[in-house]
């Protein structure tokens, strides 16, 4: 795993983003899916913006989320410890100065989407690296639900689509890539979060 972590850090330097299939084993994906089932009643419709600017807008995003407590010892997979290990590598290898991370589970119902956006909030650009970890079972291209990452150069209009295969981890620099979630024909599950600097 540590070699994988170092390779991911290098790819983030080279490319600003990393697609890492098999970050979780199929068994680990199943365990986290079961955990989502257990907690599903506590999910809430996701919003956009922060604090006073926070609002629900189903024209922009249609997922339900459940924020995680970073001290949560009850997750069936030590995913928070792995994210913490990545956070430390970001600092020791890249000097990113990310003091913490925040994470939530997300469930997009069939037809759900998240329109093109940047993950940094307008008045609080503390998000440095975004991660998305897919928790889908037996996903196919035809199911849709791709993460569409718009490549750096806005004029070119080029993008890269990532299929949300269970166990795939995506990392990217939060201020660099606009992205969107394409509607899927099935429910689409993930854990998403941000490595962040502390707010000034
Ligand atoms: O689920 C994904 O692929 C991306 C989610 C996303 O862009 C977000 O929550 O900000
Ligand atoms: Fe996003």
Structural descriptors:
single chain; about 200 residues; alpha+beta; Jelly Rolls; seven-stranded antiparallel beta sheet; about 20% helix; binds 2-oxoglutaric acid; binds fe (ii) ion
Summarize the structure.
With 200 residues, the protein is of the alpha+beta class. It has helices at 2-15, 26-39, 79-94, and strands at residues 17-20, 44-45, 64-67, 100-108, 114-117, 127-134, 147-150, 159-162, 169-173, 179-181, 188-196.
Give the topology:
Blueprint: H1 2-15, E1 17-20, H2 26-39, E2 44-45, E3 64-67, H3 79-94, E4 100-108, E5 114-117, E6 127-134, E7 147-150, E8 159-162, E9 169-173, E10 179-181, E11 188-196
Antiparallel strand pairs: 1-9, 2-3, 3-4, 4-11, 5-10, 6-9, 6-11, 7-8, 7-10
Helix pairs in contact: 1-3
Q: Would you mind describing this structure in some detail?
A:
By secondary structure, the protein is of the alpha+beta class. The protein has one domain (2-196): q2cbj1_9rhob like domain (Jelly Rolls, Sandwich), CATH 2.60.120.620. The protein contains three helices and eleven strands, in the order αβαββαββββββββ. It has helices at 2-15, 26-39, 79-94; strands at residues 17-20, 44-45, 64-67, 100-108, 114-117, 127-134, 147-150, 159-162, 169-173, 179-181, 188-196. The strands form two sheets. It has a seven-stranded antiparallel sheet, with helices on one face. A four-stranded antiparallel sheet has the order 5-10-7-8, with no helix packed on it. Strand 7 and strand 8 (159-162) form a beta hairpin. The chain is globular. The chain starts with a helix and ends with a strand. It binds 2-oxoglutaric acid (AKG) and fe (ii) ion. 2-oxoglutaric acid (AKG) binds at residues 114, 119, 132, 147, 179, 181, 190, 192. This is SM-20. It holds the Pfam family 2OG-FeII_Oxy_3. InterPro entries: HIF_prolyl_hydroxylases, Oxoglu/Fe-dep_dioxygenase_dom, Pro_4_hyd_alph, Pro_4_hyd_alph_FE2OG_OXY. Keywords: Dioxygenase, Iron, Metal-binding, Oxidoreductase, Vitamin C.
């Amino acid at each position: 795993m540590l070699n994988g972590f170092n390779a991911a850090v290098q790819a983030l330097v080279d490319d600003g983003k990393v697609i890492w299939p098999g970050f979780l084993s199929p068994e680990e994906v199943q365990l986290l899916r079961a955990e989502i089932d257990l907690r599903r009643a506590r999910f809430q419709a996701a919003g956009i913006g922060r604090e006073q600017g926070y609002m629900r807008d189903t024209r922009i995003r249609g997922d339900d989320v459940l924020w995680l407590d970073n001290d949560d010892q009850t997750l069936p997979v030590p995913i928070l410890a792995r994210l913490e290990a990545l956070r430390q590598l970001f600092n020791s290898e890249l000097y990113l100065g990310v003091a913490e991370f925040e994470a939530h589970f997300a469930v997009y119902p069939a037809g759900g989407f998240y329109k093109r956006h940047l993950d940094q909030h307008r008045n609080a650009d503390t998000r440095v690296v975004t991660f998305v970890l897919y928790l889908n079972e037996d996903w196919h291209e035809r199911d849709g639900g791709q993460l569409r990452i718009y490549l750096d150069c806005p004029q070119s209009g080029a993008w890269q689509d990532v299929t949300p295969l269970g166990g795939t981890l995506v990392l990217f620099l939060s201020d660099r890539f606009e992205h969107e979630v394409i509607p899927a024909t099935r429910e689409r599950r993930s854990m998403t979060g941000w490595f962040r600097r502390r707010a000034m």
